[in-house]
Amino acid sequence: MASSGAGQVEQLRRRNTARVLGVLRADGPTTRTDLSRRTGLAKATVGSIVTDLESAGLAAETGELTTGRGRPGRTVALTGADVLGLGFEVNVDYVATVSLDVGGTVRHAETVPVGDETPWDVVTQVAAERADDVRAAGGRIAGCAVAVPGLVASDRRTVRWAPNLQWRDRDLAASIDAATGVAGTVVDNDANCAAVGESSHGQASGVDSALYVTGTVGIGAGWIVDGAVVRGHGGFAGEVGHLPLGDPAARCGCGRTGCWEASVGLRAALAATGVTEASTPWASAERIAAAAPDTPAVAEGIALIGRHVGHGVAALAGFADPEVVVLGGYFVPLAPWLVPAAEEVIGERLTFADLHRPELLLSPLGLQAAAIGAAEHALDPVLTGSLLP
Ligand SMILES: [Zn+2]
Predict the structure, then answer these.
(1) Cα(258) to centroid(ligand 1), Å
(2) Which CATH number do you get for residue 284?
């Protein structure tokens, strides 16, 4: 059938375009000959894709001539600094936003406290403002994506259940579409997004097998195997916050006792240290860290959280055997007291700690990890070649 044949040609063209974009993004400017070698595509195919990318404003010749063996060639580079993916992370007490250009450079990053408004209102307002700002500066929006602390339906549009936000079956994507005027918003779990952020911009970049544990009011995990996020059958893999890995007596917001989150979530850290909450989990953690050097009870409170973190990480690492475990979110400012306590318990509890012990790393991305991962998702229409004319 002609239509399916044309569809296959189009699919192939998108796939090839994605390969060329992938090489330019990962390795920087290069010649058409080199692109052909690295993608395994014919030179004529590469030439035609580069022409398409140029007319879409995503690539340009840099004017540089390569020397060395063979005929000199002009270097092609990604441009597209004005083509942006808008990523958002909505949480109980803050909304983070990151704008990422096609080359992977962060063009804008901001964390807005929720304050007296609702997280829903704040994320839609922030999304509308970001879209307006990009357009006012003459930029183009490739897409939008939102990271949420909860379970997302397989359509990647509807929030099925976000307990800490009290959202059930809410069409967040439609609301962001309307706020930004950009169709096709993607919604994804925050820990999955953070894992993508770490994998593309942070500690887990270039690592094949990583476990990312994010600490805010809730606890989530993103699991990367062979460089890709493991989503599970319903997209719910990595929901570790309510696994019974915590103090069996600790009451959780979900109504159960013993959840990991009830022992290592931000509220548990505030209770263990007696420090009052600040505007964001990061600010709260900095407040706790500032008190720790002079207050032994605060340092001991953090160490207690660290031991619960170690207990859970040992269990998860025993199952997943990752090369690295990246701790993110509010855990990071507490690392000097938290990590040694966690390491000690991991040494005691991980069966194969003597043979292979995953390296415990700290996220360098602050509260932005999930928003960066969301912004990567938001660029998908460009990076997969489907936005080209
Ligand atoms: Zn729970």
Answers:
(1) 7
(2) 3.30.420.40
